[in-house]
């Protein structure tokens, strides 16, 4: 069953061999899908005959967004915390600990419904691949449960037992690291592809993070790191040293951090929803791009610091607040996210790629930044099936 989408005003392929510039832009373009794959890309006038046909009527098409960083397995509500922060009031409730308590108390069905809701919400906004993590269980059973729930909704599942040290280990953080690298890892490794650590002052230091990431790597998980979000620290350079797929946040970087990223293959994943929602300083994407670092954009969707599932919103923020051009932001939200997940089958539209496409109600991908907050996603295909 082949389908032709023709009369595409601007097609983003992210393959410079297929079109203009780093985005491989093709004007008056057409795409043919066969089953779950893209099989042909060219101009409308050259398009082959197919079983079915959709006229894009001068709209833009781009690869489905790849959101490589989210925290969707949670219960509870932190509206009051956000509201207090926006009112400039101190708020003493427990932050992540509030979510840990609510998540532990939730049923499997409640957690499953939450992940289903947020992944569906993301899909409606064009996200065809989403990574998500544990990290609000922080016991052997609760972390393994979170990963089992996540795996029902995505293949990109990350073990984040090292999110924070839970209250019951407050006086024994070394004991908690031993748990994470021991019984918790045993229970979680079969359900995850990635291992992650929140390497930050107040969470896990460089030595603890190294122990956790190498233990995960020894069990076949690939490292990724929450690094340098709240202040400078060892996270970014540790990520590069361990050949982590991604160093996420990268808000506070030294020149040595930037050099390390530029010299390795670790992607810098920027999460501007977090800075937006906490009124914090944004990362300097321009500095990373100018150094030759591969940059990804993701939502960091979580109930505390970035409760958005919208990649278009993050694209707009990246352009307005982080010095990225619209082309760079769209690339980071698609091909960049794919690189952060070490995937070559997604994030690009070329023959052989998975047929993950977004049709915008706009003539150009630039409108994602030019028209912020407007629901421009008109249709979405994932693995060749129209899902929106
Ligand atoms: Zn995160």
UniProtKB/TrEMBL annotation:
It comes from the Bacteria. It catalyses: 4-imidazolone-5-propanoate + H2O = N-formimidoyl-L-glutamate. It is an enzyme of class 3 (hydrolase). Its cofactor is Zn(2+); Fe(3+). Zn(2+) binds at residues 69, 71, 226, 300. 4-imidazolone-5-propanoate binds at residues 78, 136, 163, 229, 305. GO terms for cellular component: cytoplasm. Signal peptide: none annotated. One of its GO terms (molecular function) is zinc ion binding. InterPro entries: Amidohydro-rel, HutI, Metal-dep_hydrolase_composite, Metal_Hydrolase. GO terms for biological process: L-histidine catabolic process to glutamate and formamide; L-histidine catabolic process to glutamate and formate. Binds 1 zinc or iron ion per subunit. Residues 61-362 form the Amidohydrolase-related domain. N-formimidoyl-L-glutamate binds at residues 136, 302, 304. Fe(3+) binds at residues 69, 71, 226, 300. Its EC number is 3.5.2.7. HAMAP family: HutI (MF_00372). Belongs to the metallo-dependent hydrolases superfamily. HutI family. This is Imidazolonepropionase. It comes from Streptantibioticus cattleyicolor (strain ATCC 35852 / DSM 46488 / JCM 4925 / NBRC 14057 / NRRL 8057) (Streptomyces cattleya).
